[in-house]
Input
Amino acid sequence: MRYFDVVGISGGVDKGLAARLGFSKVLVLGSDIILSDRPLHGRKCIVESSDQGTLIKSLRDPSVIGIKIPDNEIDGKVIAAAADAEKPIVIDLSPLFSQQWRDRQRSIARLRGLIKEATRAGAEFIGISNARSANYLLSIGQMLGILGLIGMDVNRAKATMEKIGEYLDN
Output
């Protein structure tokens, strides 16, 4: 099994450290994968937009790896479109570590709701730590625990960390 993480650390993560954390590769937002508000034709990207239409249209673009729903708001149309297009919804764990406790509780509740609705619709997921510094890097075990906390079973949580590899191989 090959597990992947995506981080926001400029300069990336040493291969040795990535291996010690249990990952085949740790990708960097901005260089390995682009986070954009629209599809970037020909470049692998994750689209994050507060505009429902933009997210739904981006699902048709082959350069789009997945979509990231801002603030993990539950949007039934976007979730259904992602499931139909067989494109994953990105579950970003970084807000759970960078917020005050009340905001963190709200983020956990939103993530649980998003996972519940998306699972019901048959959507897939990509789980990322999106660590902003080395202090917030997570191991596979930690990510599995956190994904379990927000409502995923172990097999589905493992699949979220493998999923991005399918897009890198294509």
In short: The chain has a mean pLDDT of 91. The longest strand covers residues 64-68. The radius of gyration is 15 Å. Residues 90 and 126 are 5 Å apart (CA to CA).
